[in-house]
């Protein structure tokens, strides 16, 4: 997608969602905020999936972004929500960039288990670190936006709008990246990384780049989630959090950026209502929902509008060979 077209779509989506938010009740605003912030972390998983990577450690960067934004407020006195979200994304992106060269040497289940191990190490450190609240975490002071304190009646809408803007701009950037040379090469790595290496590209460098992007997106999502909740805790880095991101990434597929946020919203809706009406079996409802998607739409939600059917082969005329060769030549 061209940058101007992606930006136009993002601005249109921002305008529509901000107007819709004015009429939405508070519970729906909060649910949509969670869906958009989690969608950023899920988008990072999709970036890796599109390049053939598999991660069960996206919760690590989700937690780093949340704690980074929180510590920027407590230790540095930064109260602006925009700056805190950007600092959370920067912290997670830098950490991902540091470990990416090591992890890029591995593929498949080894890569996935290493990311899971890093995430669980972070969970253990955060749980035992009493200065950060231990297993209970800690509450965050109310943020400001562009120097203005958030009024209680408008706080939910402002945080919703801020999350929507960040999510739409990040989605536009990822859509442009998917159409860039590195993004297309990553898609080729998913098919055959050895052939891509023969063509002169480095699958390791591409995987490391995708991992760094995924980390920054996860950190941004974690920072925005912490701002909306007003609380951070080690559960952000737990393996179940990463599992939910993978769940939604499979649900969305890697063919469409918009499908990521649709899948995230569906996940939040199904989880919320299943937890309300089936409090003891809501995980079962989520599992059945995913099975139905895998069985009837294996390409994910994105394949509903971005999947292309293969054109049928043109039948050969009767009585003629399938391949015609001139005398003395070979084809």
List low-pLDDT spans: 308-331
The helix content, as a percent range, equals: 55-70%
Q: In whole angstroms, how far apart are the ends?
A: 37 Å
- Major pleated sheet: 2 strands, antiparallel
How many strands in all?
Answer: 4
**Envelope shape:** globular
Integer tally of domains: 1
Strand order of the largest sheet: 1-4
* Mean of pLDDT: 85
Derived structural class: mainly alpha
Description:
The chain has helices spanning 3-23, 26-50, 58-74, 81-103, 108-128, 155-178, 181-198, 203-229, 239-252, 258-277, 282-296, 303-306, and strands at 138-139, 144-145, 148-149, 231-232. With 331 residues, it is mostly helical. The strands form two sheets. It has a two-stranded antiparallel ribbon. Strands 2-3 form a two-stranded antiparallel sheet. The chain is globular and about 60 Å long. The model is unreliable at 308-331 (pLDDT under 50).
Quick summary of this structure?
This protein is an all-alpha fold. Helices cover 69% and strands 2% of the residues.
């Amino acid at each position: 997608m061209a940058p101007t077209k992606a930006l136009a779509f993002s601005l249109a989506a921002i305008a529509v969602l901000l107007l819709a938010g004015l009429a939405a009740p508070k519970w729906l605003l909060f649910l949509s905020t969670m869906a958009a912030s989690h969608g950023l972390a899920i988008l990072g998983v999709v970036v890796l999936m599109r390049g053939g990577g598999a991660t069960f450690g996206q919760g690590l960067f989700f937690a780093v972004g949340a704690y980074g934004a929180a510590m920027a407020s407590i230790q540095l006195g930064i109260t602006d929500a925009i700056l805190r979200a950007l600092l959370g994304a920067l912290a997670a992106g830098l950490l991902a960039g540091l470990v990416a060269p090591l992890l890029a040497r591995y593929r498949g289940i080894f890569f996935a288990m290493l990311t899971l191990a890093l995430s669980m190490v972070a969970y253990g450190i955060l749980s035992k670190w009493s200065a950060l609240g231990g297993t209970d975490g800690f509450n965050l002071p109310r943020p400001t936006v562009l120097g203005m304190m958030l009024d209680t009646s408008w706080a939910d809408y402002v945080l919703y709008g801020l999350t929507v803007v960040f999510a739409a701009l990040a989605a536009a950037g990822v859509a442009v990246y998917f159409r860039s040379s590195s993004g297309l090469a990553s898609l080729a790595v998913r098919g055959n990384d050895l052939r891509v290496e023969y063509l002169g590209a480095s699958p390791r460098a591409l995987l490391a780049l995708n991992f760094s992007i995924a980390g920054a997106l996860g950190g941004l999502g974690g920072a925005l989630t912490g701002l909306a909740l007003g609380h951070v805790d080690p559960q952000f880095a737990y393996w179940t959090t990463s599992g939910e991101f993978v769940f939604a990434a499979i649900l969305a597929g890697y063919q469409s950026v918009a499908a990521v946020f649709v899948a995230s919203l569906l996940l939040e809706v199904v989880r919320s209502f299943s937890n309300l009406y089936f409090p003891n079996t809501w995980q079962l409802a989520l599992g059945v929902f995913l099975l139905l998607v895998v069985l009837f739409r294996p390409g994910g939600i994105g394949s509903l509008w971005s999947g292309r059917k293969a054109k049928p082969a043109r039948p050969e005329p009767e009585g003629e060979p399938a391949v015609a060769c001139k005398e003395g030549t070979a084809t």
